[in-house]
């Protein structure tokens, strides 16, 4: 055998592998590599870019007619939406002018249509929206009518239908929101509620509820001090992104002189009775009587012996005098029925309220009575029954207040407070769910590290 062929065959066999499977795989790889090399060798080379033939194409393009575009815009009538608020002393003409309305037929319709005339009776500050054409013709006008308590009651909508107008009223649909606020007393309660450090001050209606809610535990005339804090969760009602009224306080927390008082509104859905405020452990907070018939005032004369300011006679003063400006609202300190409302000797304008059992309260020297207050009128705790004055034997504006048990005057500051009946087992289970939510909200409102003793229950 040729030695050269022998050596070459051995080397080729070693390159292909020692096993039959290895030799097959190696041979396949070599075959594919040879095919690829051959394909690359016979493929034609692409021509250079400068050698590619170039062809120029010219085409006329039709530009849009500018005159047609302007004419189309002129044919498309422009519409404008305006919003204004009613100003004091506004006339219909003045309001429509500010709204961009120049439409005699619209004015005639508003003045003649019974429903549309409601626009002419809007209160100052109320919003009115209108859409007009480019020449001032009215397309539609919308507004909300409120009642005597400034509560929205209906929406009025005036619309153009061809050459005529129609007026329609719809019930108000309000969006309910729940808001949370935290405040610290630095000078006074009202200064704290008017602060807008978190973007908004508290509505006046909510402030009044805070005072009423905690007035059986805190005397807002004398108990407040710098550093006291309160957190409040309340509902508001909105229309078209504008708040129209505040609702009820859902929960409140007031820390006064290191002691924290908490209150949660609970109205059981399975009970026909109205709701009330409770502590977080489910105990009713509404007590028999408020600590004071006035929200803010000072005691000018206590329950004691004194020299009468007019007669000069030394005698017992069987009530408490609260100094306050004329016109300050006077609240019934408890639920009851008015047994007397009129003029009574030295008491001047006088109201007596009979409560349950043998309790009664008396309010003297009023400037006037609240509307609807007369003999037999039922009143609830906190209802306004009159206003501070100086009628009868009085030397200045103040309220003389008496608390009577079996017609015997007692010192109001020493009368034990009576609370409502507690929740039953089923009501308590439902209450705990509501209280847990409010407790979590309180935790979010409190400053970090804040702590205070809880009020005794």
TrEMBL record:
Superkingdom assignment: Bacteria
DD-carboxypeptidase/endopeptidase Mpg-like N-terminal domain: residues covered: 81-137
GO molecular function terms attached to this record: metal ion binding; metalloendopeptidase activity
Domain M23ase beta-sheet core: 316-412
SUPFAM superfamilies assigned: Duplicated hybrid motif
Transmembrane regions: 24-46
InterPro entries, per database record: Cell_wall_metabolism_enzyme, Dup_hybrid_motif, M23ase_b-sheet_dom, NMB0315-like_N
Name recorded for this polypeptide: M23 family metallopeptidase
């Amino acid at each position: 055998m040729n030695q050269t062929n022998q050596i070459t065959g051995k080397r080729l066999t070693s390159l292909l592998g020692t096993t039959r499977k290895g030799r097959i795989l190696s041979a396949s790889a070599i075959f594919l590599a040879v095919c690829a090399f051959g394909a690359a060798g016979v493929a034609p080379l692409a021509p250079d870019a400068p050698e590619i033939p170039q062809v120029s194409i010219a085409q006329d393009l039709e530009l849009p007619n500018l005159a047609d575009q302007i004419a189309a815009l002129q044919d498309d009538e422009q519409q404008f939406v305006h919003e204004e608020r009613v100003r004091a002393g506004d006339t219909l003409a003045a309001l429509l002018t500010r709204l961009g309305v120049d439409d005699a037929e619209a004015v005639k319709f508003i003045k003649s249509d019974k429903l549309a005339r409601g626009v002419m009776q809007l209160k100052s500050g109320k919003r009115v929206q209108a859409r007009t054409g480019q020449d001032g013709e009215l397309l539609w006008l919308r507004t909300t009518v409120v009642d005597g308590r400034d509560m929205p009651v209906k929406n009025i909508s005036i619309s153009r239908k061809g050459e005529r107008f129609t007026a329609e009223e719809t019930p108000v649909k309000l969006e309910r929101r729940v808001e949370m606020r935290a405040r610290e007393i630095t000078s006074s309660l009202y200064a704290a509620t008017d602060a807008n450090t978190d973007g908004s001050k508290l509505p006046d209606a909510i402030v009044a509820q805070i005072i009423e809610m905690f007035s059986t535990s805190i005397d807002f005339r004398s108990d407040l001090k710098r550093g006291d804090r309160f957190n409040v969760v309340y509902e508001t009602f909105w229309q078209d992104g504008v708040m129209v009224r505040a609702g009820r306080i859902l929960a409140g927390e007031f820390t006064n002189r290191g002691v924290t008082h908490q209150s949660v509104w609970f109205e059981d859905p399975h009970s026909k009775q109205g709701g009330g405020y409770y502590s977080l452990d489910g105990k009713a907070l509404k007590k028999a009587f408020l600590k004071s018939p006035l929200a803010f005032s000072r005691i000018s004369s206590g329950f004691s012996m004194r020299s009468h300011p007019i007669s000069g006679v030394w005698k017992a003063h069987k009530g408490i005098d609260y100094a306050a400006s004329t016109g300050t609202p006077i609240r019934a300190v408890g639920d009851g029925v008015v047994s007397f409302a009129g003029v009574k000797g030295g008491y001047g304008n006088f109201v007596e309220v009979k409560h349950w059992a043998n309790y009664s309260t008396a309010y003297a020297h009023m400037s006037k009575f609240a509307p609807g207050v007369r003999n037999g009128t039922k009143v609830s705790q906190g209802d306004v029954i009159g206003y501070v004055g100086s009628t009868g034997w009085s030397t200045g504006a103040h309220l003389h207040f008496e608390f009577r048990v079996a017609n015997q005057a007692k010192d109001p500051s020493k009368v034990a407070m009576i609370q409502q009946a507690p929740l039953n087992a089923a009501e308590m289970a439902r209450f705990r769910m509501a209280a847990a939510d409010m407790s979590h909200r309180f935790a979010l409102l409190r400053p970090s590290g804040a702590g205070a003793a809880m009020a005794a229950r």
